[in-house]
Amino acid sequence: MDDRIRQGHDPEWRLAFHDRLDHAARARVLQAVSAGESLPDPHEAAIAAGLAHRQQRLLLRHALIILPLQVGLTLTWLAMLLPPARLPAAFRWIWAVVLTLLVGVAPLLLRHQYLTARHTIEANQRAGRS
Q1: Cα–Cα distance measured from residue 28 to residue 48, given in angstroms and rounded to the nearest whole number
Q2: Backbone φ, ψ for residue 40 (5° rounding)
Q3: N or C: which end of the chain has fewer CB within 10 A?
């Protein structure tokens, strides 16, 4: 299997995923990547590793988008707390929830998905090379 497919680069990976796999095989690949599992078939394993690489690159892009938003919202929320801000308490609590979700939960979810993709790559690397 081509190394560009294992790395998840277009157009080779996209052609392999859509043209070489039937619907059931595509479902197995998607399930394996979301669960961080390996596949017994070497062709499916190489395509799964490619999909995991693609997801890692996408997650890194998302992290680069979320980081400035986190900093901006933190600064905005702190500015609203400082006097002479005269905003309703409910509005401040809404911002507190949004800030907590962005600063606390979003990076943890991104990290979990990134580590699952890395585990998928490692699990399918050996099977995809044979």
Answers
A1: 9
A2: -75, -30
A3: C
CA 91/CA 117 separation, integer angstroms: 38
Structure tokens at 75: 């600064």
8 A C-beta contact, residue 63 and residue 110: yes
Angle of helix 106-129 relative to helix 23-35, nearest 10 degrees?
A: 120
pTM metric for this prediction? 0.77
Give alpha helix (H) positions in the chain.
3-7, 12-15, 23-35, 42-81, 89-100, 106-129
- 3-state class (DSSP) for residue 86: coil
* Residue-wise pLDDT tens digits, 68-115: 887 887 787 777 766 666 777 777 778 778 777 777 888 889 899 999
Output the six-digit token pair for 123. 């699990």
CA distance 74 to 104: 12
Average pLDDT on 1-24 reads: 88
